[in-house]
Amino acid sequence: SKIQICCGVDIFRSRTTPSPANVLVRKGEHITSKDIIAISYSQTQHFSLDFARGLGVSKKEARQYLQFKENEIVSKGHIVAGPVGFTKRVVRAPIGGRIIDIGDGTVIIRNEGKPGQLKAGLSGEVDQLIPGCGAVIKSFGCVIQGIWGNGLLGAGEMVMLLHHSNEEFVIDDLGSDLRNKVIVGGYCKSTAAIMKAAELPLNGLILPSISPELIPFVNDLPFAVILLEGFGKRPINSKAYDLLKRNTGRFVEVIGEPLDRMRGVRPEVIIPKVSGEENELPEPVDEYFKGQKVKVISPPYYGKIGLLSKLRGVTRLPN
């Protein structure tokens, strides 16, 4: 899917859960980015526990050592059967759940899974419901899409720490006044800067790129992170830089969803705007045309913004 950097446009985003869910919102309802729109449960698990073998007794004898009855709930690690013998041997539950069946020396434990909360991620209006999955949310404003996200969501006042495209993000940039802010920094290769950001903490971090060695540290951060250009020392593109700079101090929403080309999902920054504000940038289009502004995504001009001067049409590949 194309990377979009646009402003003054209607934004529609589908927010769904990977498993069946109870949808909590109504069509037409106004919501914020932090609102929970659906609650889902992970897939039900069943576990067969051979407690007779665990106790080292016969199946017929084992039942007298059971500590639970059918339909009772057991927690992970609790003693299901025993103690037995001089060594006081016991059998503990490997998972938590409900005992749904007791057989000859075995019990079946059913685990319903943990509830998962799906947050809206962006503020706006519920445009339509997706039964059993989630909803489509409609918003209005600016969109800046990136290359990589750490899977988390965030929102807050945006602070611009990037004063020129080649600036580096370092620990000295981070002061206590940035606590709970969404900050825009430069290329980062400093582990210390990432750890300091975690200590504050921030509500979101927008960077053009990072050194690949920092990926494990960034994945452990408790807030949303988006890379606009990817990995290695890559400066921010001029279009995204200008748009972020013009909107510094405004409330922004950071959706760090990982790139999924099949669903057309990209990590992105959304700057909600009031309907009727000036459309500063053109709406995204599906077709390319001569004179169109585009972003180069291959070396040696990676990240640069240019104008299309010639179209070669469709090319059939050998395969």
What is the N-to-C succession of helices and strands?
EEEEEHHEEEEEEEEEEEHEHEHEEEE
- From the spread of the alpha carbons, the general shape counts as elongated
Portion in beta strands? 35-45%
The termini sit apart by 21 Å
Helix content: 10-25%
Low-confidence stretches: 275-279
Let me know the largest β-sheet. Answer: 11 strands, mixed
* Mean model confidence by pLDDT: 88
Class by alpha and beta content? mainly beta
- SS field, number of helical segments: 5
- E-strand count: 22
Gyration radius from CA atoms, angstroms: 26 Å
What does this structure look like?
The protein contains five helices and 22 strands. The protein has helices at residues 51-55, 59-62, 191-199, 215-219, 238-246, and strands at residues 5-16, 21-23, 30-31, 36-41, 45-50, 73-74, 79-84, 89-92, 97-102, 106-111, 115-119, 124-130, 134-145, 148-149, 153-160, 182-184, 204-210, 224-231, 251-255, 268-272, 293-295, 305-307. It is elongated, with a radius of gyration of 26 Å. Strands 1, 3, 12, 13, 14, 15, 16, 17, 18, 19 and 20 form an eleven-stranded mixed sheet that branches. A hairpin with a 4-residue loop joins strand 7 and strand 8 (89-92). The longest helix has 9 residues, at 191-199. By secondary structure, the chain is mainly β. Residues 275-279 have low confidence and may be disordered.
